[in-house]
Here is the input.
Amino acid sequence: TTVTYDYRDVGIILRYTPQVQADGQITAAVHTEVSTPQLETQLTPPAYRFSKREADTQVRLHDGQTMVIGGLIGRSETKAISRLPFLAELPVLGALFRNQYHEKEDTEVVIFLTARVVLG
Here is the structure.
């Protein structure tokens, strides 16, 4: 058996590449990414799967102007059942010995960037 490791950047990643134009405006290439690791226990050995939301854009701003990047929407759903062995399987009374958990979660990342020209 061979085990290998692969390192990845996760979380909120922002790449901002600005260029100041002759007229003083700022042209920028912006890449935003939200990546989340999720443990897959069904695999042998368990491994991580990465979900990724990303957006690329180019903008042109005046000095001091703010831009907003939004729409990086994520949705997760969790279902779990906890129970007492044997007692949860009893007819009629078994429902008293088990608990079902169901959760839905929506998230959105909104990023505000303000362009500034620094002379010096």
